[in-house]
Amino acid sequence: MLKVNNISVRYPGGERDALSNVNVSLIEGDFVCILGKSGSGKSTFIRCINGLQKTTRGEVLWNNTSLSTLADKQLMTVRREIGMIFQHFNLIPRLTVFQNVLTGTFGYRSTFKNLVGWFSREEIKRAKQIIADVELTDQINRRVEQLSGGQKQRVGIARAMLQNPKVFLGDEPVSSLDPGTSNRIFTLLQKMHNRHNLLTIINVHNVELAKLFATRIIALKDGEVIFDGLPEAFTEQEFHQTYHSTSVKTKVL
Ligand SMILES: Nc1ncnc2c1ncn2[C@@H]1O[C@H](COP(=O)(O)OP(=O)(O)OP(=O)(O)O)[C@@H](O)[C@H]1O
After folding, report:
1. Residues with Cβ within 6 A of ligand 1?
2. Pairing relationship of beta strands 199-203 and 65-66 according to DSSP bridges
3. Entry's PROSITE patterns (predicted)?
């Protein structure tokens, strides 16, 4: 489904590669957590996967099609199948839960319909169902700026789900949330993941969460993959290598 083929990224003016020779193949059903210290390349990796960041070398293939060969419009079609959630939620604060969730349909609609805010009966029904799935029915008409962080992330998840995605990408979606709320958000992500047989890829700083929820862990260090395997194989030693040690030793299981 997703093949990351020996990619490297060097930002303009950068002294070293932000990502270096990364090779990964992922399929639907994989729930992948990306671990690594700040600056190890996690966000750059996510941005390469959805085509927001061009690679300096190598290529990202979705179902055997290289992102680098796609025109902007085709890239938008690929992105429509990728639901994104963000650390700072990226919602429209003055709009309600319902209105924010409905923006998840925008990739499928004409600019005119988006501008005038016309939604079909089917879109409205689905939005209400998904809001119920994330347990926010009682908040549906509240402005998003009045919600807690955990509730905002639920809105983010609902908006992404309305896109009908095949892939769920999260760039540190629980970094600003407390441990209990983070756990509940991951539980919800896992529920959506299993129900729709998604490919889920989440950057996370919390190793415990990764070990609890991921089916596969990838650890980055200085832009290189130093671990790729099952959560139970990510032991104290791998933890130390990822977050403390200066030497880079790859372990792919
Ligand atoms: N737009 C940019 N221009 C130049 N350098 C960048 C840019 N974005 C990231 N970098 C550099 O690339 C490297 C990887 O950054 P990236 O944001 O991918 O790391 P990260 O693991 O996601 O970090 P964090 O956990 O702090 O979000 C870092 O050295 C960073 O300074």
Report:
1. 11, 14, 18, 36, 38-44
2. unpaired
3. ABC_TRANSPORTER_1, ABC_TRANSPORTER_2
Residue to probe by mutation, ligand 1, list 16, 42, 242, most atoms within 8 Å of CB: 42
DSSP 229-243: E-GGG--HHHHHHHH
Domain boundaries, the chain: 2-81+165-252, 90-152
pLDDT at 115: 58
* Residue position matching structure tokens 């990502």: 19
* CA 136 – ligand 1 centroid, Å: 34
Q: Give the amino acid at 207.
A: V
Identify which of 29, 17, 42, 19 has the alpha carbon closest to the alpha carbon of residue 218.
Answer: 42
Using one digit for the tens of pLDDT, what is the confidence trace for 87-131? 999 999 999 999 999 998 876 655 656 655 678 899 899 999 999
Q: What pLDDT score was predicted for residue 73?
A: 85
Architecture in CATH of 2-81+165-252: 3-Layer(aba) Sandwich (3.40)
Residue 16 has pLDDT above 70, yes or no: yes
Nearest ligand 1 atom, CA 9: 12
Task: Check residue 108 and give its pLDDT.
Answer: 61
Task: Give the integer Cα–Cα distance in Å for 19 and 236.
Answer: 24
pLDDT tens-place string over residues 199-217: 999 999 999 999 999 999 9
Task: Report which secondary-structure segment, H or E, holds 112.
Answer: helix 111-116
Ligand 1, atom 18, lies closest to the CA of 41
